[in-house]
């Protein structure tokens, strides 16, 4: 039995436990993910607000959608909410989005919930393993800072979020696309100019500034990524396809408590 076959399920299981248990630092390539928060380009205030939105969304969904067939994951970055997982029907899927729309300060929703059977523990373990490999490879890529990327994997599809320059986003997506088991890479970035990216990193490392909520931006929903492209550079191995997935503009949605 190879070392990788032994360590892979153990590492994946550890990642799942850590995810369920909260913000426990996970060692990846010699670095703890808990330390990455120090240079997150979001301010401490923005990170706190994102966490509050995530906790409230998870609790409201869990308390409302009690069907055992429902499995919805919530990820928040800069008040944009990514919903992934599986639900039994379109009505349940719409209900999950409606729940999130009612949360204050949500400015966008990316709907990636599948109408499908609930994923197995094996599938989630594999997703956790892919996420750990993507993070490790981002850390080992000198041209970018892994700290600025948020990585989510669902059924082999990798979602990348972050405040990044276009070049950083391209490099990060290319890195993720070459990981074994990745089916597709979806870029959900918010792009900033290179000089702005550098300024945000410098400020985050020194003295993070508080964030100011912008209630004028109502939550909108996108169900499909916008545009499609593939990696054109000669790959180290066969890359997974990469697509852009920004939030589409939509009709104003009134938010509440």
Quick structural overview:
The chain is α/β, with parallel strands linked by helices and 257 residues long.
Protein model, in words:
The chain is of the alpha/beta class and 257 residues long. The protein has one domain (44-224, 239-247). The protein has helices at 3-21, 44-64, 90-101, 121-139, 166-177, 194-206, and strands at residues 27-28, 31-32, 71-77, 80-87, 108-115, 150-154, 157-164, 184-191, 221-222, 242-244. The chain has a four-stranded mixed sheet. A four-stranded mixed sheet has the order 6-7-8-10. Helix 1 (3-21) packs across helix 4. The longest helix is centred in the N-terminal third of the chain and has 21 residues, at 44-64. The radius of gyration is 18 Å and the shape is globular.
What is the topology?
Layout: H1 3-21, E1 27-28, E2 31-32, H2 44-64, E3 71-77, E4 80-87, H3 90-101, E5 108-115, H4 121-139, E6 150-154, E7 157-164, H5 166-177, E8 184-191, H6 194-206, E9 221-222, E10 242-244
Parallel strand pairs: 4-5, 5-9, 7-8, 8-10
Antiparallel strand pairs: 1-2, 3-4, 6-7
What attributes characterize this protein structure?
globular; single chain; 10 strands; alpha/beta; four-stranded mixed β-sheet; 257 residues
Taking all Cα atoms into account, the compactness measure Rg is: 18 Å
Low-confidence stretches: 1-7, 15-37, 209-217, 223-237, 247-257
Order of helices and strands: HEEHEEHEHEEHEHEE
Strand order of the largest sheet: 3-4-5-9
Strands, count: 10
Number of domains: 1
């Amino acid at each position: 039995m190879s070392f990788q076959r032994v360590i892979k399920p153990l590492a994946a299981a550890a990642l799942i436990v850590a995810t369920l248990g909260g913000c426990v630092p996970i060692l990846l390539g010699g670095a703890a993910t808990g330390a990455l928060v120090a240079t997150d380009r979001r301010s401490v205030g923005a990170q706190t607000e994102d966490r509050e939105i995530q906790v409230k969304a998870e609790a409201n969904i869990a308390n409302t959608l009690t069907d055992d067939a429902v499995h919805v994951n919530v990820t928040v970055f800069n008040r944009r909410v990514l919903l992934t997982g599986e639900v039994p029907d379109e009505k349940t899927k719409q209900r999950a989005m409606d729940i999130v729309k009612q949360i204050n300060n949500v400015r966008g929703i990316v709907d990636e919930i599948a109408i499908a059977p609930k994923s197995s523990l094996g599938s989630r373990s594999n997703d956790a393993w892919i996420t750990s490999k993507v993070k490790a490879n981002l850390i080992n890529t000198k041209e970018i800072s892994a700290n600025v990327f948020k990585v989510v994997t669902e059924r082999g599809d990798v979602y990348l979020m972050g405040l990044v320059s276009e070049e950083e986003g391209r490099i990060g997506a290319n890195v993720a696309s070459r990981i074994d088991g990745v089916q597709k890479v979806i870029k959900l970035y918010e792009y900033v100019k290179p000089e702005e990216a550098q300024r945000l990193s410098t400020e985050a490392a020194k003295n993070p500034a508080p964030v100011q909520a912008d209630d004028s931006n109502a939550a909108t929903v996108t169900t499909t990524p916008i545009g499609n492209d593939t990696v054109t550079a000669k790959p180290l191995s066969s890359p997974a396809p990469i697509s852009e997935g920004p939030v589409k503009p939509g009709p104003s949605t009134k938010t509440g408590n």
